[in-house]
Amino acid sequence: MADMKTFSESDYFRKKKIQKIIIYIVLLLIAIYTLAPLYFLLVNSFKGNVEIIDSPLTLPKSWSFQYIISAASEIHFFKALGITAFITAASVSLIVLVSSLAAWIMVRNKSKASSFVYLCFAAAMLIPFQAIMYPLIQLFEDASLKNIGGLIIMYGGFGLSMSAFLYHGFAKGVPRGVEEAALMDGCNIFQIYSQVVMPLLSSITVTVIILNAMWIWNDYLLPFLVIGNTTHKTLVLELYFARILAGQYGNPWELIFPAVLITILPMLAIFLSLQKYIVKGISAGAIKS
Amino acid sequence: MKKLLIGLSIVALACSTSVFANGASETKSSEAQADSIYVYNSKGENAKQFAAMCAAYETETGVHVKNFSIGSGQDHMATLRAEMNSKDKPTVYSIQGMKELPEWEQGGFVQDLSKVTTGDFGKMVQAIPEGLRLSSDGINSYGVPYNVEGYGYIVDKAMLKSLFGTDPTADIQAATYSEWANFVTTLTSWIKAPSKMDVTFNGKTYTLAASKDALSSKLNGVFVVTGSEKWTYGDHLLNVAINSVFSSSRDAASATDAQVAQLESSFIRYAQVLDLMTSNLAGADGPAQRGQALVSSSKFGYDQGVQIFAQSKALLLKQGNWAYGNIEGVDSNMASRLEFLPVKMPYEASDVKVNKSIAQLNSSIPVFVPNYYAVNALASDAKKQLAYNFLYWLNNSKTGKDYIINKFDFIPYNADPSTTTVPNSLGNSIISYIDSDNTISAPYNGSPAGWSGDVVGKKVMEEYLTKATWATADYKAIADYAVQKWQDMN
Amino acid sequence: MNIYKKWFWPLVAPALILFIAVILVPFVVGFVNSFLAWRGTYYFNPETNSRATNILQSFVGLTNYKEALQDERFMHAFWYTIEYTIIAVIAINVFALALAILLDNISKGAGALRTTYFLPNMLGGLALGFIWQFIFQIVYTDILFAPDSILHNEFLRYMTQNSNKAMFALVILNIWQYAGYMMIIYTAGINNIPVDFYEAASLDGASAWVKFKKITVPMLMSSFTVCLFLVIANSFKMLDQNIALTNGDFNTRMLALQILRTVKDTTPPNYGRAQAQAVIFFVIIAIVSITQVRVTSKRELEY
C-alpha cells in the first residue's frame, strides 16, 4: 500500500513536471514567434538594397553601421526625437491635467450636468477619426493652429475621453473624508486636488500616461495632416517622408529598415526600463474601468 | 513612483528646450512678403535639387520662392487640397495630367494660360506643342509641362551584342509583331539550350550565338513582369493599345460608348501581348511562371523587377526612364548601356482608328508629360505675374535649364531633339525617338478615374496573372471587361 | 458640499472646451457636409455644374447617403469589416486568455515572457506593415509552409493575395500586436480571483475544465467587458494594418480604408459621400459597442 502511494505520488509529480515542460515549450515558441519580426528588422538594418532583396532572412554579410548612420542623418534623428518627445510629453501632461480635474469634480458633484458631460465623453470614444478628420483640420487652419501647438491641443481632445473615463472609475475610490479633513485645515480646491487627490490617483496616472504616450508617439496620420512636411517633423513623419522622397518608384529598403529600427529604439528602451510600471499600470486601468 | 514622474518630466523638459532652440528658423510665409511666391512640387524625388533651384532663382532675381515638395504617392492630393484650403495658398502647383485637372478646373483654382498672350511667358505658352498641352477643350491651356517621360522595353545593348554579335536595334525597332513574337519564343528555347538559331527583324536575318558567354549565361527568361505593380500592365501597357483608337487623352475623355467599344479588338491584342510576356518570364532564381508568386510584391514588386533585370537575368524590362536611377543603384555600368525598344501589338488594319500605320505604331514608344505646373487662378495679378516670370526663367534661362537637365535629370519638354543630350542613357533614347517622330502619347489619362489601374489592372492581377494557362476566351474576357467597365464608369 | 458645486464648471471647463473644439464642432460640421456636394476644396453646385457661390446651392439632401449605400465597394467593405471583427474578437481574446492562463501556471520566467508578448504593442503600425508583408510573402510562403516543408499548408501561403486568406493574415498580425495587451488585462483579472475559490473546488473534486468554466470565466466578466470593447473598437477602426498588408487589393478594403479611398475613387473627389460613409460608420460602431457593453456588463459578477 505504502509503496503504491509513493509511486502514484511521484507519478503525479512527474505528470505535473511534464505538463510544466510542455507549457514552457509552448510559451517559448510563442515568444520566438513574437520576436521573429524584430530579428528580421535587425538583420536587414545592416544590409544594402541588393542584399536585402536577395537574402532577406540571413544574417548580414558584415555588421557595418553605415546604413544606420546614414538613416539617422536622413531622418534628422536627434531633432525629430526631441520634437516627438516634446509633443508626446506636452500632450500627455495636458491630458492628465484636464481629464483628472474633470473626472474628479464630476464624481464629487453628482448632478444632471455632471452625468451629461460624462455621457458626452463616453460618446466621444465611439466617434471614428474619419468622421471628423477633414473638418477638424480646416477648423484649426482657420484658427491659425495648424502647427505643433494645435497638434497638442488635438491630442488633448482625443486622449481626453478615454482618460477621463479611467480617472472617473478611480476617483470614486478616493475617500471623501480625507478631502473634507484637508478642507477643514484650510486647503483650497487646488491644494486638495494636488496634495490629496492626485497622490491617491498616482497608479491610474501612470496608466493614463502610458496609454496616451504609446499612441501619440507612434501616431502618423494626425501629425501628417497637421504639421505635414515642415522642418519640424516627428520621428514617424520623418520616416514617412524619407520613404516618399526616395521616390514613387521602388522602396529604399536600405533606408527603411535601419530608420525603422532607430525610431523604435527609444520606445523600446523606455519600455524595457519601465516595464514593471507599464504592466502594473495597464492591469490597474483594466480592473476598475 | 515619484522618481519615475520626476524622471519623465526632466526628459520632457530637456527635449522641449531643444525644440525651442530650433524653433527660430521657421520659414517666412509667402503671403507676408510682396516679392515672393509659393511653389508646390509633387515630384518628391527631386526635393533637394528643387529647393536649390528656388534658391538660385532668388539669388538671380531677388524674388523669394517658398517651396514644398512631396512624393507622388498616396497622399499628395490630400496635402495639396489642405494647402489650397489654407490662407497661404500655393501660387504655382502641380497637376498630374487630365486625371487631376477636373477638380481644379471645376473649383476655379487653375488659371487658363492661353489667355496670357503678352510677354515672353505668353509666347512660351503659345509654343507648347499641342500634343503636350493640358487642355480640357482643345483651346484652354492649364499648365507648363515639367518634362517629358517615356517607356518601352528597356534593354541592355551589351546583352544584344552578346546574343547577336552585332547591334540589331534599328531592325528590331522596325520589325513586325510576328517577327518579334517569333524572336521571343526562339530566345526562350535558346536560353534553355543554346545553339545557332535564326530570327528575322525587318526582313533581315540575325543569328543567335552558338553558345552563351559570361553575360548571356545569366539570362533565364526574356521578360521581367512586375505582377504586383498593377500600373505597369494596367496603366502603361493598356495605354499602348489605347493609342490605336485615341490619339490624345482629350479624345479619350470625350469618347462616346460607341467609340469606346472600338477598343475591343485592341484590348484583345493587349491580352495577347501580356500572354506572350508572361509565358516567357525571368525570375530571381530561374525562369518564372504565371501564378501566385508573380503577383507577390516581395517577389515581383518594382524593386525586385529592377533587380532581376539589372542582374542580367532578363533581356527586357517594360519600364520608363524613371527606372534609370534604380538600375544604376544595382549596376552602374549597365545603366550607361540602356535603350528602349517599342512595345509591339499584333494589330490588324481594322483595329487602328487613328491616323497612323501599324508599322508606325509598332515602332513608337509612348512619350508624355507626367506633371504640369499650374498657376493658381485665385492669386493676385501681381503674384500671377511673378509666377509667370518664374516659370519662364525655369524653362528658358541658362541656370533653369541646367537644373532641369543636369540636376532633376529631366528631359525638357521644349528641347530641340536634334541637339539636346541628357546625362542618362534612357533619356537620350527617348530624345532619339522624339527626333525620329516615333512617339505615341498617353490617352489612358482620359479614361475614367481608376479604370486602368484599379479596375482593369486589378482584374488582370487577381484573376489572370495567377492563372497558369490562358485560352483565346480569356483574351476576349479581358477585353470585354475593359470595354464594359470604361462605359459603366463614364 | 458646496465647494465642489461651486468649482464644478471651472474645473470641467478645460476638458469641455477641448471636447467641443476637437470633437464636437468638427463632428457637427462633418455631419452637415454629408448633405452637401462637398469636393474637399470647394462646394459644387449641381445646377450650374460648377463651383457653388453659396453653400446652400450645394445641398443635395440624402444623395450622398444613397450613393454610399448603393456603392458596391462600401457594402463589401462593410461586410468584410463585420466578418473580420467577429473572427478577430474571438481569436485575439481566446489567444490572450490562453496566454494569461498558461503564464499563471508558471513562475520562473513569467515576467520576461509577459514582457516579450507585450512588446509588439509598443511599436507603431507603419513600420510593422513592411515587415509583416515580407513575413507572409516570404517566410510563410517559401519557408514555413512551402510544399517541401513538413508544415506544408497551402492555405497559409500567399495569404495577402486572396480576400479570405488576407482576413486571416490580418487576424494573425493583430494577434501578434494586441494579444499581449489583452493578456495583461486578463492576468490582472485572474490575480483578482480569490485562491480559496479554486481550493474549495479542488476539494469537491472539480476538473480543471469545470474550474475554468465555473470560476474563471464568470469571475473574469469585467475583464471580458474591457477586452471585448477594446478589440471591437480596434477591429472596426483598423486602418494601418489594412493598408500595410494588402492596401485594399483583392477585395480586402475595410470600412476605414474605404472612407479614405472614396475620395480617390472619384474625380472630382466626392468628400460629401466620404463624409456620409463616415457618419454611417459612426452609427454602426456606436450600436455595436453600446450593445456589447450592455450585454457583458449585465453578466459581470459583484462579489
Overall body shape of chain A: flat
Q: Distance between the terminal alpha carbons of chain A, to the nearest Å?
A: 55 Å
- Low-pLDDT residue spans of chain B: 1-32
Oligomer: heterotrimer
Q: Alpha-carbon distance between the termini of chain B?
A: 64 Å
* Biggest protein-protein contact in the assembly: A-C, 88 and 86 residues
Mean pLDDT of chain B: 91
If you had to describe this structure to a student in words, what would you say it looks like?
The complex is a heterotrimer of chains A (289), B (490) and C (303). Chain A folds into 2 domains: 2-44; 75-288, MetI-like (MetI-like fold), CATH 1.10.3720.10. Chain A is 80% helix and 0% strand. In chain A, α4 (77-108) packs parallel to α7 (148-171), α5 crosses α7 (148-171) and α7 (148-171) runs antiparallel to α10 (202-218). Chain A is mainly α. Chain A has 13 helices and no strands. Chain A has helices at residues 2-44, 49-54, 66-74, 77-108, 112-124, 129-142, 148-171, 176-184, 189-200, 202-218, 221-226, 235-245, 253-288. The mean pLDDT of chain A is 87. In chain B, strands 5, 8, 9, 10, 11 and 13 form a 6-stranded mixed β-sheet that branches. Chain B folds into 2 domains: 35-145 and 370-412, D-Maltodextrin-Binding Protein, domain 2; 150-368 and 431-489, D-Maltodextrin-Binding Protein, domain 2, CATH 3.40.190. In chain B, α12 packs across α21 and α17 packs across α18. The N and C termini of chain B lie far apart (64 Å). Chain B has 490 residues and is an alpha/beta fold. Chain B contains 21 helices and 13 strands. With 303 residues, chain C is an all-alpha fold. Chain C has one domain (71-266, 279-299): MetI-like fold. In chain C, 71% of the residues lie in helices and 1% in strands. Chain C contains 12 helices and 2 strands. Chain C has helices at 2-33, 63-70, 72-104, 110-118, 125-144, 163-191, 195-203, 208-219, 221-236, 240-245, 255-265, 271-299; strands at 44-45, 50-51. In chain C, α2 (63-70) crosses α12, α3 (72-104) packs antiparallel against α9 (221-236) and α6 (163-191) runs antiparallel to α9. The longest helix of chain C has 33 residues, at 72-104. The two termini of chain C are 31 Å apart. Chains in contact: A-B, A-C, B-C. Chains A and C meet through α1, α4, α5, α6 and α7 of A and α1, α3, α4, α5 and α6 of C.
